[in-house]
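HOLO CASE FILE
Compound: zinc ion
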Amino acid sequence: MSQCSGTTADGKPCGVRCLVGQPWCFNHAPDDEVAAQRDEARREGGRARGIQLTRAAAVTDFEEPEWWPLKGTGEVRGAFAWTARGLARGTIDARTANAMAAALRGLLDAIKDNEADSRLRSLEAALGGRK
Ligand SMILES: [Zn+2]
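Model generated. Tokens follow.
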């Protein structure tokens, strides 16, 4: 298993493992068949990115769902369900779903902290009033 004899854009040796029976890696092989596969791989990469961007745009255009504007735990639960449904249907990509879940978890923690603070304040007020 030798290393590719090509060079990188900044002039350093490529160093990637060679294709079987060739002195080049997948990126440097000069023959037409490999070049065609390489072009196809690039096109596929571009297509996948295009789909990601289209889906991201679809999520930004969403009609305001019943759980918006996420004021309480019930609405956050609704948003979790909406995200899971979108992921299952393929209208939300995994990256967006992960980001949504992380944001929703943070929001849920903040809501719970706020509720705990309110309960504590009303307890303190009740105890203070009995002096
Ligand atoms: Zn190479």
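CASE NOTES: Residues 32-126 form one domain. The chain has a mean pLDDT of 83.
CLOSED: yes
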